[in-house]
Specification:
The protein is an alpha+beta fold. 19% of the residues lie in helices and 35% in strands. The chain starts with a strand and ends with a strand.
């Protein structure tokens, strides 16, 4: 025995199932095992109870497992056919519903005739083809007019091609056929009474009938291809009147028809594939007018339509807007401004102001997910009824509440390469998991702990370090990651209940993937140190080699200066001494020889000085090279009274010239300046050295007499300049015309 939070008393029995006592109403309700009903108690032996925080009751049984009763689902009440129970519905497939003014519920079934449940009773009375003069036991329409008359429509019976219209006599409790109202071919689709008291009868293939109860006159409206003001089709599925007295007819495949009683004319609205503001589908199966006067239409395949009378256009709502299906077979409005849509995939609560959808299916307690066109009605107390393939679902709209419970979210499983990993403690208690780099294919399973409709729980997750945003998973409670690089990651997951209430706290676990040894910091540090040592060794080798070369250059320069230069100086000295000793006794030939000796000695000394200067590493820097160029040119020009302009920078950015290039560059410079001073007869000279970090450029220009470079000569100046330029890898240009001066340009790559 168990008392729940609602004060209900639950009593478990040894073989008779479960009894609940309601102390407020003083009644018992029994829950037993029914082999034909999947949602019944699993077995009759009840052993224990437990009520969770959401108010759901868990029931333990012997050999029947655990059962659960959710009170939120009890707000949907189903009326079904129970085999071998004559007090239940005769059939499961419901085609028509009507609650009359007395509160009696009339049910038309497919093949089971007509059933009636009187107000306050829990059993049905059944009216079959015989002895009640029904042509068929398939009842397709039931309707009560304002006089209280019950109208019944049927499909054709055996041996006939037409259905029948019946009236129920309450006093005699009998049915009377209306032979004056012929439905034509096939049967009745719908009854509807307008505000003038005229009854409209829609048929399945023969248009619509209008019955004036006062004059007993029946008028037939059919499609006439020669009359554009006729109804557009003969298969009429639904009828509705708006607040202006205009009647609307939905047809199967022929669009929506507007009927104006004042003109007795029909206007048709059809789907235009090129116009998104047209009717979404020509099969209009249900119509309702809301409290604001807007018409709403359910279609077969085109979802829900809202008619906008000012624009005479339609606004469409489909599964893309949240509907559970594009097949809408029934519409009822509640007192809160919502529309309840029955579809072939459950029910939908549609807010006409926000256009928000809340969908319900069999897991929420419906008779099934599939409902049937025409099988819906509103009870006198506001209860809504929808018929489907497995009975009737009835409910009070304001009693259908969202699930407010905030579900905890937990991790339930962790796998590597699809094999569950053994952990030191359960995964929901684990805060950190360390994997090797070879275990980089892993997956999680998780659960939101709300059991109202667990298949509707939603999930979203994120692996920080991999996922930039949250990954929405719908109702799939697993996540997989493949080929994850070594590093530290944090996995987070959120869950919601069936009504979208999300967990306030994430389930979190850290994942550390250790790298292979060759990717560890210490291995990288060792490699870096080895590389640095190798680079340092190479550097030291090159530096030592350069230092050795430099020391050799210094030694050679010193030796040349100390020995060769001294020897040449000695030769010059001895030549001068001999010349003085001979004195005035020199013959012309001897005088010439002494002059040649001195000239040769001077040239050798100058050349040796240039070589020593080039070899000496102290002269490798531009800061020591360029002043020598400037000084040489200025001294030579001033010695000949030549006006000059020298543009030589203090230094040149970029790398220095090699010893060989520097030596050739210096000799070229000397040759150009010397030739201009000695042989051009110029009075002005311009000398410039420039650089763009990639090239060294020498320009020398004079205003001398010039010469013809093609004319043979015994002098080697031009030839030397060109050969030394080629040795530097440079390019030399000569521009000279007799009487127009000479211009040299030398370009050397740095």
């Amino acid at each position: 025995m168990f008392a729940d939070v609602r004060s209900n008393i639950w009593i478990g029995t040894a073989d008779a199932g479960l009894d609940m006592y309601d102390p407020y109403n003083g009644v018992f309700k029994n829950y037993t095992h029914d082999p034909a009903l999947q949602s019944s108690l699993s077995i009759g032996v009840v052993t224990c109870f437990f009520e969770d925080r959401s108010g759901a009751l868990w029931i333990g049984t012997t050999n029947g497992g655990i059962n659960r009763i959710d009170w939120k689902q009890q707000n949907f009440f189903n009326i079904t056919h129970i085999a071998n129970d004559p007090a239940s519905l005769n059939r499961s497939t419901i085609l028509a519903l009507c609650e009359d003014r007395t509160g009696a519920l009339w049910v038309g079934t497919a093949g089971g005739g007509l059933s009636r449940r009187l107000f306050g009773q829990n059993k049905f009375e059944h009216y079959l083809q015989l002895p009640h003069e029904f042509i068929s036991n398939t009842i397709t329409a039931v309707y009560e007019d304002r006089q209280g008359t019950i109208w019944i429509g049927t499909d054709p019976g055996v041996g006939t091609s037409a259905g029948t219209v019946m009236m129920f006599d309450r006093k005699l409790n009998t049915f009377k056929p209306r032979t004056d109202i012929s439905p034509g071919v096939a049967g009745i689709g719908v009854f509807y009474e307008d505000n003038r008291g005229e009854l409209w009868i829609g048929t399945n293939f023969d248009g619509v009938r209008r019955l004036d109860p006062q004059r007993k006159e029946v008028i037939t409206y059919k499609y006439d291809k020669h009359n554009s003001n006729s109804i557009s089709g003969n298969r009429v599925m639904t009828i509705c009147e708006d607040n202006k007295g205009i009647l609307w007819f939905g047809t199967y495949g022929s669009g929506l028809n507007r009927y104006d009683p004042a003109t007795d004319r029909f206007t048709c609205y059809r789907n235009d594939p090129l116009d998104p503001n047209s009717l979404s589908n020509n099969a209009v199966w249900c119509i309702v007018a809301d409290s604001n006067g807007y018409l709403w239409m359910g279609t077969w395949g085109g979802g829900l339509n809202k008619f906008l009378p000012e624009e005479e256009s339609f606004q469409r709502f489909t599964i893309n807007d949240g509907l559970p299906s594009n097949v809408v077979v029934g519409i009822l409005a509640d007192n809160a401004g919502n529309l309840w849509l029955s579809t072939n995939n459950g029910l939908c609560k549609f807010n006409t102001s926000t256009y928000a959808c809340k969908n319900y299916d069999r897991s929420d307690g419906l008779q099934s997910d599939e409902f049937i066109q025409g099988a819906y009605c509103t009870g006198k107390d506001g209860r809504l009824y929808f018929g489907g393939t497995n009975g009737i679902t009835a409910f009070y709209p304001d009693s259908i509440k969202n699930n407010p419970n905030v579900p905890p979210i937990v991790l339930t499983k962790f796998s590597v390469f699809d094999k569950q990993l053994s952990l030191s403690q359960p995964i929901n208690l684990t805060r950190e998991i360390t994997l090797s780099y070879q275990q980089n294919f892993f997956s999680f399973e998780f659960a939101a702990l709300d059991y109202t409709a667990p298949e509707k729980n939603q999930y979203t997750h994120k692996l920080e370090g991999i996922d930039e945003d949250w990954v929405y998973r719908g109702n799939r409670n697993f996540a997989s990651y493949t080929d994850i690089a070594p590093g530290k990651y944090v996995f987070r997951v959120k869950g919601s209940n069936n009504d979208g209430v999300w967990s306030k706290k994430d389930a979190v676990v850290s994942i550390i993937i250790t790298p292979p040894f060759w990717l560890t910091w210490w291995f990288k540090a060792i490699v870096v140190l080895l590389i640095l040592n190798v680079l340092y060794a190479i550097h030291r080798y090159r530096v030592n080699k350069l230092l050795a070369v430099e020391r050799t250059r210094v030694r050679i320069a010193k030796d040349l200066h100390d020995e060769v230069s001294a020897t040449i100086t000695g030769i010059s000295y001895f030549s001068d001494a001999i010349s003085k000793e001979v004195g005035s006794n020199k013959t012309p030939m001897l005088q010439k020889l002494f002059s040649l000796v001195k000239e040769s000695v001077d040239q050798v000394q100058e050349s040796m000085s240039d070589i020593i200067w080039s070899i000496n590493p102290e002269n490798d820097r531009w800061e020591t090279i360029l002043p020598k160029f400037r000084r040489y040119a200025s001294d030579l020009c001033e010695s000949k009274n030549i006006k000059y302009e020298i543009s030589i920078p203090a230094s040149i950015p970029g790398k220095d010239l090699s010893m060989e290039k520097r030596h050739n560059f210096w000799l070229i410079f000397k040759e150009m300046v010397t030739n201009a001073v000695k042989h051009s007869g110029c009075s002005e000279m311009i000398i410039a050295i420039t650089s763009d970090n990639k090239q060294l450029i020498l320009n020398i220009k004079d205003n001398g007499k010039g010469f013809d470079p093609e004319k043979p000569t015994d002098r080697n100046g031009v030839k030397n300049i060109k050969s030394r330029s080629a040795a530097t890898g440079g390019k030399v240009e000569l521009n000279t015309i007799p009487g127009k001066g000479t211009e040299w340009k030398l370009v050397i790559q740095l």
